[in-house]
Amino acid sequence: MTTEEIEDMRPRSGRLPRHARRAQLLESALEVFAAQGYHAAAMDDIAAKAGVSKPVLYQHFPGKLELYLALLESACDAIIERTREALRSTHDNKLRVAGTMAAFYDYVAADTGAFRLVFESDLTSEPAVREQVERVTTECAAAITEVIAEDTGLPAEAAHLLAVGLVGMGQVSARYWLNDPGSLSREQATALVSGLAWRGIGGYPLH
């Protein structure tokens, strides 16, 4: 939900409905966490960013960890759904590979910085955070595994290993490109990595 949408929902009294206030707080928290990381961010900073008092913030989220986890879950859901959408969008496997790689590159390049919560979290020692972060690889790989196994006839374990490799390729290369893009545009980088991935997975015969 954008700031404009939140403003449209503001009642005449000036008070936001609870769900709109929650969306506003999450949007502000994302900016603070993405910029500062979990440990450096303070609830005071988030409240100030949202233009509310700390008691209002605590009415919605009992603590910083709960707020972070709410954001993290949403961020993880987004990249997982983008991967599934890429796989559902076509039956052409070459295009599926390109779409999957584009999902990771588009995600890390988004202005919100949400990917930092998923791929660069400074709180992976917290079990609940680690579980969410690992869920990205697990669920993205599961979706890709299903396609590989169905199309190639490979055993589930083999298909899953290939799927994890593709997910890793997308995640790691996208993050590397973002930090050191050189002269490569997002489209060029995506095409290069997609080509590499397709030359590998495309070599397996269809079942």
Structure description:
This protein is mainly α and 207 residues long. 76% of the residues lie in helices and 0% in strands. It is built from 10 helices and no strands. α2 crosses α5, α5 (64-88) runs antiparallel to α6 (93-109) and α9 packs antiparallel against α10 (186-201). The longest helix is centred in the C-terminal third of the chain and has 26 residues, at 127-152. The model is unreliable at 6-13 (pLDDT under 50).
Q: Considering DSSP H and I runs of 4 or more, what fraction of the residues is helical?
A: over 70%
What is the arithmetic mean of pLDDT? 90
Broad structural category: mainly alpha
Largest sheet: none
Calculate Rg over CA atoms.
20 Å
Can you count the beta strands? Answer: 0
Q: Main traits of this protein?
A:
207 residues; mainly alpha
What's the gist of this structure?
With 207 residues, the protein is an all-alpha fold. The protein contains ten helices and no strands.
Secondary-structure map:
Blueprint: H1 3-8, H2 18-40, H3 43-50, H4 54-60, H5 64-88, H6 93-109, H7 115-119, H8 127-152, H9 156-179, H10 186-201
Helix pairs in contact: 2-3, 2-5, 5-6, 5-8, 6-9, 6-10, 8-9, 9-10
